[in-house]
Amino acid sequence: MDVNERLEQNQNGSGPSLKPDEKRLYLGNFRERVILAIKGSQLGSDASKAVLEDKMKAYPEATLTIDQDLAGADYIDYLQLAIKAGNPYSLLSNNERSKQTADPYAMVLAAKTAVNIDNIEI
To answer: Which residues does the annotated region (Disordered) include (predicted)?
Structure first.
């Protein structure tokens, strides 16, 4: 592949991407930026809402990414938590899910830079 072809691919957004499987697993985020990841099976529980609320208070600049299809009607409660806390949020629809797990993440709270938190699950 010559340089011009590579430049054209990158301009169109069709070039190679960095860690595509990792980004698919964490809803478009790199693992080192993830503060909290909530699986689809954990949605709706008071514990997941309480932990998310605490993490959003601790990281007010972190973005909550929600897979609407996986979250179903529960996404509204979590969206309201983000709005109340003042955290930015992003809604995904028709998201390509990771094939790495049977219970994929429905929501991810992630920072703009690396935070390197070891335990990101509830």
So the answer is: 1-22
Interatomic CA distance for residues 101 and 113, integer angstroms: 25
Is residue 3 one of the residues assigned to a domain? no
By the 8 A CB rule, do 37 and 120 touch? Answer: yes
pTM equals 0.85
| CA torsion angle 87 108 93 11 (round to 10) | 90
Q: 3-state DSSP call for residue 61?
A: coil
Which residues span the domain enclosing 34? 19-110
6 within some domain: no
Q: In 3-state terms, what secondary structure has residue 113? A: coil
- The tens digit of pLDDT for each residue in 20-38 reads 889 989 999 999 999 999 9
Token pair 């219970």 in the structure block, residue: 103
76 inside domain: yes
The residue among 114, 106, 102 whose CA lies nearest residue 34 is 114
